[in-house]
Amino acid sequence: SPLSRTVRCTCIKISDGTVNRQSLEKLEIFPASQYCPKVEIIATLKKNGEKRCLNPESKAIKNLLKAIRKDRSKPSS
Amino acid sequence: SPLSRTVRCTCIKISDGTVNRQSLEKLEIFPASQYCPKVEIIATLKKNGEKRCLNPESKAIKNLLKAIRKDRSKPSS
């Protein structure tokens, strides 16, 4: 089709670093799709609801995901 | 304080299985917090926006996360 498809990714700037697990409200992971050809990982921070795009290929992010996944209940505050 | 704290997790029922990467709109990961003592992973499906809670300790979910993270752009549809 001659119509160009709208490709829309959410992340404009990808953060080089990671985020502190304790300051993290949630992580959203959007798989690559017809709307955006690359996976996007978006962190929402507790403090101000700030959203930050993380690098899916970063080893620090890989480790962050692993740490979160393995977190069991532990005494909080 | 005598007031009991409201502990509120999102997931009531955890799915035993996994979800097809292609049918996945997004994954949300909520780290353990004072509101919910365990990590929660919630899949949103493309088709109907259905949300499904996944088991963070499942090997299938670990592999799903890995597969999504490693997904590069590839021809879609």
Account of the 3D structure:
The structure is a homodimer of 77-residue chains. The first copy, chain A, is an alpha+beta fold and 77 residues long. The first copy, chain A, has a domain of 50 residues: OB fold (Dihydrolipoamide Acetyltransferase, E2P) (Beta Barrel), CATH 2.40.50. Chain A has a 3-stranded antiparallel beta sheet with strand order 1-2-3, with no helix packed on it. In chain A, strand 2 and strand 3 form a beta hairpin. At the A-B interface, strand 1 and helix 1 of A face strand 1 and helix 1 of B.
Can you count the beta strands of chain A? 3
**Largest interface (C-beta under 8 Å):** A-B, 30 and 30 residues
| Low-confidence spans of chain A | 1-5, 73-77
How are helices and strands ordered from N to C of chain A?
Answer: EEEH
Could you outline the blueprint of secondary structure elements for this entry?
Two copies of one chain form a homodimer.
Chain A: E1 24-30, E2 40-45, E3 51-54, H1 59-70
Antiparallel strand pairs in A: 1-2, 2-3
Key phrases:
homodimer; 77 residues; alpha+beta; OB fold (Dihydrolipoamide Acetyltransferase, E2P); 1 helix; 22% strand; disordered N terminus; disordered C terminus
Give a quick rundown of the structure.
The structure is a homodimer of 77-residue chains. The first copy, chain A, contains 1 helix and 3 strands, in the order E-E-E-H.
